[in-house]
What does this fold into?
Amino acid sequence: MGAAVAAVLVKERHVADAFQRAGATSPERAVVPDDIAVDLGGVGGRRLLRHAVLREASAGRYYLDEPTWVAVRSTRRRLVFVLLVVVGLVALYFMSVALTHSASPAQ
It folds into this structure.
């Protein structure tokens, strides 16, 4: 499952990078996705549209909303950090319980 999540994130990154390389980072500089070889029907494009990272400026022309892209990536980093802390605390708890039980005398 972790590999699937990583693959989706990589696809999102490729779509976002394509819009950045094209300079499509404002409504005035919006581009047609086909012109930059991007498929918005793919998983990466759909997710970026759903998160409002890609916005439609006019009929069929899209741009990358960079502040939203930065916010989405920052939120993901925070979530990963919190999950790692929780997993670490749970592991520490179980290690301390195991050590306590192994150190107590047998009855």
Remarks:
- Strands lie at 54-58, 61-64.
